[in-house]
Amino acid sequence: MNEKFSPEVFRTSLMGENMAVICGASGSKFVFSNEDKLVTSWWPSSIKKIMFSPSLFGSPSSKDLMKPSIVIHEYLKPEAIKHYVGIMDMVAGKHIDMYWTSNINKEVKVYPLSKKYTFALSCRLFMNIEGPEFVDKISDGFDRITVGFISLPIDIPGTTFNRAIKASDNVQKEIVEIVRTRKKELIEKGDSAGVHDLGGVFIHNFK
Predict the structure, then answer these.
(1) Three-state SS at 17
(2) How far is CA 204 from the centre of its chain?
(3) Closest Cα partner for 88 from 143, 125, 50?
(4) Distance from chain centroid for Cα 189
(5) pTM (global) more than 0.90
(6) Which of 112, 78, 71, 79 is nearest to 95 (CA)?
(7) What per-residue confidence (pLDDT) applies to 130?
(8) Per residue in 62-117, pLDDT tens?
(9) Where are the beta strands (DSSP E) in 34-75?
(10) Which residue has the higher pLDDT, 5 or 65?
(11) Helix, strand, coil: what percent of the chain each, to 5?
C-alpha cells in the first residue's frame, strides 16, 4: 500500500491497547483465512479480566473452547437449522403475546423489548433455557458486563468495572451449573438426550 494513511488499514488505540484495524471485504478475508498463521485471537487485558478466570485463560483447553469452528459446522447443518426455525417462531410468538399484544393500549418501547427477545432466543438456542425469571437474571448480568467493557478498567468496589467483574463471576457460576446438569443428562441418557443447542453441541464434542 503506497498511501501513508488509509481508511482501510490503520493503527489506533482502544482501551489502552495498541492495535491495527483492517476494513473491507478484502481485510475480512485476510483475517479469517490466516487464523493462527498471520493473525491470532486477542483480547484486551480489561476484557480478559472481566470475562476469563485466570485459572482458565491461557490453558490449551480454554484456547480450544474459544475457537467455535470445531462445533459450528455441526450446529449449522441444514437439518439442524430447520429445527431452529420452529423454535425461533415459537419464542417470537410467546414474546409478542407477553410483551406486545398485552400492552396494545400502552406505549411499547421497541428497543428494550427487542433486546429482551434476542436474549431470550439466545438462551433457548444456546442453552435450551426457557424460564423468564432465569433469562431476566442472566440478562441483567450481561448488561452489567457489556457496560464494563467500555468503562475505565479501575477495579475497586463501586466502580462500573468492578461491578462487571462481579456480574461475570455470577453469570459464569450459573452457566457452569447448567453445563454440569446438561453433562450429567448426556451421560445418563446418551444420544437419546438429544443435542439440539449450541451448549449441548459443545458438551457432546468436549466431554
Answers:
(1) strand
(2) 19
(3) 125
(4) 28
(5) no
(6) 112
(7) 79
(8) 455 445 555 566 666 677 677 788 888 988 988 888 888 876 667 778 888 888 88
(9) none
(10) 5
(11) 65, 5, 30
